[in-house]
Amino acid sequence: MPPAEHEILDTDGMWELAAAFPEQVAEAFAGSSGITGLPNREDIENVVVIGMGGSGISGDVLQAIAAPLLPVPVTVVKGYECPHFVGETSLVFAVSCSGGTEETIEAASDAALAGAKMVVVSSGGELGTLAGAWRAPVLHVPPVAWPRAAFGSMAVPLIVVLWRMGFLPGADLWIERAVAQLRHRRDQFVRLGPASEAAAVARSIGPSVPLVHGGGAVGAAAAQRWKTQVNENVKRLAFSSTQPELCHNEVCGWAESSKEIAGLMSLVMLRHDSEHPQVGRRFEITADLVRPWVSSVVEVRAQGEGELAQLLDLAYFGDYVSLWMAADAGIDPGPIEVLMWMKRQLAGRTGPLGGTGAP
Fold it and tell me: Is the peptide bond before 244 cis (omega within 30 degrees of 0)?
């Protein structure tokens, strides 16, 4: 837990929600493993996950963990448009914590009209109502203040559905091992508090803008989670990139013309056991290239048994880093008024940022 002087800045209980994440993952598995009404495995030729923001990250996790093992492709959609290939042989997950995400509702509605086999992951809302019309199985997300705090409740059910359908034998053990690692990591963070690794990384990043590098699909999903948690919890810019792709473009930006900007940034490298050997070398070379330019270079290594455990471990580490960054900066990690303002603007309820009005 944070020092007492920071507790008053946590109006939405984000620290408590972070501490409960291992149990959230375990409960998501228990709550979704009894799902019925799923299509036959033989009838599915592709899997699509539709979701935005804190809900859409569930698709990134599924793609990173399951896609390499599946006999069918996985596509993640973060927008209004449903892919034209979606049809009667598609399994489509519509994921929205609130059930009111307009992009997800539009794309999922088109998928349902195309005859796709729908599965809804939501706490209710309009998407929950549509699920009834579609006769789609619903995996209920417990209500939380913000979707990013329901990460486990939305990511785990997708894996469970594919496990139940016979696509991912052994996935129950992956989740069991992930929960064990998350509890181990949580207990360290809570026990050590400001002396924890997460707090130390937050201090190393300081007031800089973090650039988070991840290796392969597992590292990319974790890096994306770090980026968005800094964006939303710390209300600060952050960026993520993926090895080895960044070695073909981003590295060119570390030049004299970028010197002033580069000095305001820090590099965070997320490492895991399933990296390609050459990706490991690329991390080392990139760090040597970037170190003279940035305020700090930090490496975080995943712990746990299996790719799911290591991905969630890296993501969880980033959750705590973002909370410590917010605490050190005197920022309340919960409220994100700019997102509420943007929803009001889209709905035609115009007004200044910080004004009132239903999201």
Answer: yes
